[in-house]
Structures are given as structure tokens and as C-alpha cells.
Amino acid sequence: YLRYYYDELQRYLVxxxxxSTKDDAIRHLSYDTFMEQYDTAFLDKCRLxxxxxxxxxxEPVEKDxxxxxxxxxxxxxxxxxxPNVVWLASRCDEILKSRGV
Length: 101
Fold this sequence. Notes:
Elements: H1 2-15, H2 22-28, H3 31-56, H4 66-72, H5 82-98
């Protein structure tokens, strides 16, 4: 999906005049730079998720626990799904390791 998004971004940079040609758009924002910026933004999102959730999350809520769901409905979705939490933490770890952290 990210490659598709990048390709569309490149197309619109030319179509709306931010860049004069496709090659010009690529020179302004290569795919590698785009992915680096995406990963940086993802890490920033992880920082917010972890900081916000850590102080508020006390226990997982089972899907059939109506009282628990009502109590946490306005809170973040990632604390309601263990697979989401695992994916987010794993991806954060991948990016950090790729940067030598």
C-alpha cells in the first residue's frame, strides 16, 4: 500500500504543479526518503500510543464484557486488541533495530 501511495503522491506532485516532471518529483522525494519519513512518523505515533496508553491501561477488556467495553470505549483501540498491540510493538522494534537503536 505504501508503494501505491508513493506513486500517487508522485503523480499529483506533477499534476498540481509542485514538480515539473516525474523525474523532478522523484529527485525531490525519493522512495527511500519517503519510507524514512514514514518510519519516523510511525515511531512518533508509537511514542504517543505508548505514553498515552501506558498510564491509562490497566487490563484487557474481553469483547463480551459490556461494562468493561463501556468504560474504555472512548480510549484507544490498540489497547483492546492484543494482535494490534503486538503488531505495533513489533513494527516499532523493527524500525528501531534498523536504525541501530
